[in-house]
Design brief:
Strands 1, 2, 9, 10, 11, 12 and 18 form a seven-stranded mixed beta sheet that branches. Strands 7-6-14-15-16-13-17 form a seven-stranded mixed beta sheet, with helices on both faces. Strands 3-4 form a two-stranded antiparallel sheet. It is α/β, with parallel strands linked by helices. The chain is built from 17 helices and 18 strands.
């Protein structure tokens, strides 16, 4: 092995959005920072792909935006996302329920239920308030259990005050909603099955849960926060532009980036991180290391079980990933007959639950929940449920079946769609693991479920981005504040590293 003469204050493993956010903030604070990325392109899940002329796109996320405070701190424009698009439920009878946070949504809902139409503004106001509380929770450092330090007292008191300011009724509504199912939550608000299913679809987006699963009330609030409502926020230039902006911010503040530089392991001496060893044997020294890959890989592969306490190793091994998402992209001639906005194939709660039932048994959903977006001649779909671990066969065989199901499902709602298709590319859960490094195809680096939230994320007692190894920190989507595109986890981790004097 060879060692570089250059030593860094912090090495950040992974150039996804959380890694880039953390690195840019550390560099802005005057730290000498190096970001190492396994792939040849930075951006992680935000990186663009091109599959030929006219077929360039964001392969994994139709939208996404940093939290406004993060964008401001890094000098990025907070206005790069279109927040005005409709969220449209495609119905079996050819109808289309278009939902927005304005008066037009009330009139769209009215044919299904006059009562629901009148309750819609109150629901939107409640969800905005709940998302605001969740944002505050994500900005609040979680205590180091079972013996929290005094430094957590004031932030936690401020969070409790934020909750109290919601008012007695909404305060209890928010607390109850965290553990409720999307079925229960939407039943408390609305009577129309069509409306309830459209909302419940967002609650299960990207997680291996059905609308009847406990905790999908929380995931609805989480998605509402990240999206700014029901519809995806599509950025001008796509998510790849956000990745490019973050790389530019990193370099503007003096940070360094190396792509094609996979980390083999973190170098540990005396129970402290001292740097990293790359796949080719090169050693790079650093005072601290921040890993933004999924926590199971970061702890068990990059650090290794022999360096960690036995009980902690068991907890790390027990982190639940369980991805069940696939992505499809069709290049069309433009006559696909699909409107702009975020479109959902989610006609009923029962339909969504049956789609989830297939995943329970390792099967591909024959009637999937789809979320569709369009950009020019490209139509993209988020497909659930497509379990990483299939009970029969593998994804080499299942890919064609999934492509056929998705195309047929879309064609039922847009008769001209199939004839408009010129090319089709799909991304299976196996691809998510092999190409993007997402273990078990989990976009969130760990399922957003009740036993992996807040003080329990990623591991009970270790939610403050620290680990049993001094100078080694976690800051990816699998940590507190993570899941989806927001940058909250990277921001939080950077603050912890700075607070430790790294």
């Amino acid at each position: 092995m060879t060692a570089m003469a250059t030593s860094y204050d912090v090495i950040v493993i992974g150039a996804g959005h959380n890694g880039l956010v953390a690195a840019a903030m550390l560099a802005k604070a005057g730290r000498k920072v190096l970001v190492l990325e396994r792939r040849d392109v930075a951006g992680g899940q935000l990186a663009n792909e091109s599959w030929g002329e006219g077929f360039g796109l964001d392969p994994l996320h139709a939208g996404g935006s940093l939290r406004p405070d993060i964008a401001r701190e890094l000098g990025l424009s907070p206005d790069g996302a279109n927040t005005h698009a409709s969220y449209v439920s495609l119905l079996p009878d050819g109808g289309r329920l278009a939902l927005r946070a304005d008066a037009a949504a009330r009139e769209a809902i009215r044919p299904y239920s006059a009562r629901d139409a009148e309750r819609w503004p109150e629901f939107v106001a409640f969800m905005d308030a709940a998302a605001g509380f969740l944002d505050a929770a994500y900005r609040t450092p979680m205590p180091r259990l079972p013996t929290p330090g005094l430094r957590h007292g004031l932030p936690l008191a401020q969070l409790a005050w934020k909750l109290r300011r919601l008012g007695r009724r909404d305060m209890f509504r928010v607390l109850r909603a965290v553990t409720m199912s999307a079925l229960e939550l939407t039943e408390e608000w609305f009577e129309s099955e069509v409306l309830r299913a459209a909302i419940a679809a967002v609650a299960i987006h990207g997680v291996t849960l059905g609308p009847m699963s406990a905790g999908t009330g929380y995931t609805l609030m989480h998605q509402w926060l990240n999206r700014g409502g029901l519809a995806q926020r599509q950025r001008t230039g796509g998510s790849g532009q956000l990745a490019a902006d973050l790389v530019a911010a990193l370099k503007r503040h003096g940070g360094e980036l190396r792509t094609g530089a996979g980390v083999q392991r973190v170098r540990i001496e005396g129970q402290r991180a001292r740097g990293v060893v790359l796949a080719g044997g090169e050693e790079i020294a650093a005072r601290s290391v921040l890993a933004t890959a999924d926590p199971r890989h970061s702890l068990l592969d990059l650090v290794g079980a022999p360096e960690l306490p036995p009980e902690f190793v068991w907890q790390a091994q027990s982190i639940k990933l369980r991805g069940s998402v696939a992505k499809l992209h069709w290049l069309t001639d433009g006559s696909h007959d699909l409107p702009e906005g975020t479109l959902a194939v989610a006609p009923s709660i029962r339909y969504l639950e049956r789609a989830f039932d297939a995943a329970k048994y390792g099967e591909l959903s024959a009637q999937p929940y789809l979320e569709i977006t369009t950009r020019g001649n490209v139509v993209s779909a988020h497909f659930q449920f497509a379990p990483f671990a299939l009970r029969q066969g593998d994804w080499t065989d299942a890919r064609a079946q999934m492509e056929r199901i998705a195309t047929d499902t879309l064609s039922a709602h847009a008769p001209s769609f199939a004839d408009a298709v010129r090319q089709l590319r799909s991304i299976t859960p196996a691809d998510l693991q092999s190409t993007w490094g997402l273990a078990e195809g989990d976009l969130n680096h760990g399922q957003l479920i009740l036993d992996q939230l807040f003080i329990l994320r990623p591991i009970a007692g270790w939610s403050a981005h620290t680990t049993p190894i001094d100078g080694f920190y976690l800051g990816g989507s699998g940590t507190h504040g993570g899941g989806g595109i927001s940058g909250a986890a990277g921001r939080n981790a950077a603050r912890v590293v700075l607070g430790a004097g790294a």
